[in-house]
């Protein structure tokens, strides 16, 4: 006799975290800087851990890429973490946009 299975945990994937240059989600090494449109993705970007986005158009593009890859929500690294060596944990690097482009 087979017992009914209770509903299991649900996984809501976020994909890569979206971060700005020098913020908590920027894991690039010294040899991966400076970044330009012609450079290859960093190791963290290739592994799908982070997506560096500087400016509104890049943030929109990186968010769309994560949604295209199956993310059901977006992780934004907007400041420093407790263990971050690049920025204070209380600092915020993203600013509120008054209008959202459609």
Describe the structure in your own words.
This protein is of the alpha/beta class. It has a domain at 13-28 and 45-91. 17% of the residues lie in helices and 8% in strands. The protein has 2 helices and 3 strands; from the N terminus they run βαβαβ. The protein has helices at residues 43-46, 56-68, and strands spanning 17-19, 50-52, 76-77. Strands 2-1-3 form a 3-stranded parallel sheet. Helix 1 links the parallel strand 1 (17-19) and strand 2.
Spatial arrangement of strands, main beta sheet: 2-1-3
Helicity level: 10-25%
Strand content: 5-15%
Taking the sheet with the most strands, its summary is:
3 strands, parallel
What is the string of SSEs from the N terminus onward?
A: EHEHE
**Distance between the ends:** 54 Å
Features:
102 residues; three-stranded parallel beta sheet; disordered C terminus
């Amino acid at each position: 006799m087979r017992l009914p299975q209770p509903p299991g945990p649900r996984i809501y994937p976020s994909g890569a975290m979206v971060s700005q240059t020098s913020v908590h989600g920027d894991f690039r090494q010294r040899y991966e800087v400076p970044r330009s449109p012609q450079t290859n993705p960093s190791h963290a970007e290739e592994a799908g851990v982070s997506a560096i986005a500087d400016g509104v158009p890049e943030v929109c593009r990186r968010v769309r890429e994560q949604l295209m890859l199956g993310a059901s929500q977006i992780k934004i690294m907007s400041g420093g973490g407790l263990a971050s060596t690049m920025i204070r944990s209380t600092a915020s690097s993203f600013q509120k946009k008054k209008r959202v482009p459609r």
